[in-house]
Write a structure and sequence with these properties.
Layout: H1 3-24, E1 53-59, H2 67-72, H3 75-84, E2 86-92, H4 98-106, E3 112-114, H5 121-129, H6 146-154, H7 157-161, E4 171-176, E5 187-190, H8 191-197, H9 205-217, E6 229-231, E7 262-265, E8 268-271, H10 278-290, H11 303-310, E9 317-321, E10 334-337, E11 358-364, H12 371-379, H13 384-392, E12 400-403, E13 406-409, H14 414-423, H15 427-431, E14 437-438, H16 440-445, H17 451-463, H18 482-505, H19 510-523, H20 526-545
Parallel strand pairs: 1-2, 1-3, 4-14, 6-9
Antiparallel strand pairs: 3-11, 4-11, 5-9, 5-10, 7-8, 12-13
Length: 546
């Protein structure tokens, strides 16, 4: 079976699957949702309800033996149940989308898809197209959701982030208005090693290479062993991957289904591996690899192994990219530096779009009948007091205090934090990447930055002039193309990552292989895929102008 035939067959099967979802939900009995057969009816809600009401939240992960007891005793849940008379039943669906997809196909699923990476924009677009996810826009009113609407007034761009190509909102966001949280991968270098060797912070790529060679050869950690890793990166790590240094060559992008090596330039969605500078980035990384300056396990190690190297009892790493150094006894040895200058290029650094709201956190399925009650309940997660309960637990639990009229996170060592987490787990630690709201105004007026947040914010201030101003917003796809887009991104990402590995490790030469690379991308449907991406981005921009 040739590749073209397989792609066509996969596309047909995917379309058939969506049609079957839309038609009958896999044959299961279906309750009519509020968006079925007419205009959405938004009802006034008064809490506490006279009679208790229950909703089923589908959540990523595997249920622990202690979960039921811990969630029942959680400060936030106890408070919300008392105030509203609403109870949440948590249905765990595993660590990937397999079980969720089976449930959604069978028709036997809950009211809400909850939290974090269980869905990305591509998968969510499929469920929207299949009619499995309800529109939430009509419920976003001052009367029903006053807390959310106040946050939206502060950051109108947030609405565009959660709006699909049809102009309707289908999810609720997690809000963090601190820029430093979303500068994912600034460069950190071991300043103590530089001082030990009498070296300066590198300001050009040539200087960086010489510094990394000194880290490799001159025993900067002083243990007499050749165990130093001059620069560590890992393809398995979201922030410590290979893409950040592409920013030295003006390329701000990431791989993965959400970003897919996309970069927006002057309103045009471009495919970053075809942009000017990508070849030079590859050649630079090739030099680092062949000179044993880049970690030899970059392409094969897990993110856990990567983190273990960064937290070894003996400092092993000279340079890395993360939003902040991991906690060690020598954490203060590292300083954040601006990207070294590459001749002929201006740096451009990746900035995560969730600064305008992290979407894909909360979806309401077509099984939910009482959406007005559910949305009024969820509005309470956008209240500052409840957001603090969400992430830090109750004030008396000791994770934060009131200091000079501001909420301040309490510094504690890992032993204290672990003990507290075991005795009083937070709602976020129990349920994952949950909805809550800390806005830019909150940080400016009532939230003191924690030491970790201050480090991240200082890095952002350093990088502010070089972050990508045209953020790729990870938009939703139109219903008619979402399955096609999913197939394209799989094949195209594979073509790029395989070539990237071959070129950097020297199994192939980027110049000799370039024309075949371009033709392979075309065979994978790159041009059609870029049209889909541009249409999705244009729809996002249109929403911004409304």
């Amino acid at each position: 079976m040739n590749k073209t035939f397989k792609r066509v067959l996969c596309l047909v099967l995917s379309i058939c699957a969506v049609l079957s979802l839309t038609a009958c939900g896999g044959g299961g009995s279906r309750r009519p949702g509020p968006n079925k057969g007419g205009e959405t009816k938004v009802e006034a809600v008064t809490f506490p309800l006279e009679e208790p009401m229950e909703f089923t939240f589908m959540i990523q992960g595997v249920k622990s033996a202690s979960f039921d007891e811990q969630i029942a005793n959680n400060a936030l849940i106890k408070k919300l149940e008392k105030e509203t008379n609403v109870h949440i039943d948590w249905q765990f669906v595993g660590n990937d989308t397999t079980k969720l997809n089976l449930l959604m196909s069978s028709g036997d699923y809950g009211d809400v898809i909850w939290g974090g990476p269980i869905l990305n924009s591509v998968t969510a677009s499929k469920y929207i197209a299949a009619g499995k996810i309800q529109e939430l826009t009509p419920y976003m009113t001052e009367e029903l959701m006053p807390e959310f609407m106040a946050d939206l007034a502060e950051n109108p761009d947030m609405m565009c982030m959660i709006t699909a190509s049809d102009g309707k909102a289908y999810c609720l966001p997690k809000i963090t208005g601190l820029e430093g949280q979303y500068l994912e991968s600034p460069i950190w270098i071991n300043k103590k090693w530089l001082d030990n060797l009498g070296l300066q912070i590198p300001t050009t790529t040539n200087e960086l290479i010489e510094v990394l060679k000194a880290f490799r050869d001159r025993d900067p950690n002083g243990n007499g062993l050749p165990d130093e890793i001059p620069y560590i990166a890992c393809t398995d790590h979201a922030q410590g991957n290979l893409e950040p240094l592409a920013g030295i060559f003006g390329i701000a992008t990431k791989d993965g289904a959400n970003d897919a090596f996309v970069q927006v330039v002057d309103g045009k969605v471009t495919f970053a591996p075809l942009n000017e500078g990508y070849k030079d980035y590859i050649k630079f990384m090739r030099t680092l690899y062949t000179e044993n300056l880049l970690w030899s396990e970059a392409f094969v190690a897990s993110s856990a192994t990567y983190s273990a190297k960064l937290t070894s009892s003996t400092p092993l790493v000279g340079m890395f990219t993360l939003n902040n150094p991991l906690e060690t006894d020598y954490v203060d040895d590292y300083v954040c530096i601006l990207p070294p200058k590459a001749e002929g290029y201006e740096p451009c650094w990746y900035f995560h779009p969730a600064i305008n709201g992290s979407k894909n956190q909360f979806y309401v399925t077509d099984k939910c009948e009482n959406v007005s009650v559910l949305m009024a309940y969820m509005d309470r997660f956008f209240n500052l007091e409840n957001s603090l309960l969400c992430d830090f637990g109750a004030l008396e639990e000791g994770r934060f205090v009131m200091q000079d009229g501001k909420y301040t996170v309490v510094e504690m060592d890992s032993v204290e934090a672990t003990k507290l987490g075991r005795e009083h787990p937070t709602f976020t630690s129990l349920t994952g990447n949950s909805i809550r709201s800390f806005t830019a105004k909150d940080y400016a007026t009532v939230l003191n930055l924690s030491p970790e947040e201050r480090v991240k914010q200082d890095c952002y201030i350093l990088y502010a002039d070089i972050v990508n101003k045209e953020i790729w917003p990870r938009p939703y796809y139109a219903p008619e193309v979402c399955n096609e887009a999913d197939l394209y991104v799989t094949d195209i990402n594979l073509a790029v990552t395989q070539r990237r590995g071959s070129w950097i490790t020297g199994r192939a030469d980027v110049d000799a292989d370039w024309d075949k690379f371009i033709s392979d991308l075309d065979r994978c449907g790159l041009q059609a895929y870029l049209v889909i991406l541009q249409d999705a981005y244009d729809a996002y921009l249109a929403g911004n102008k409304q």
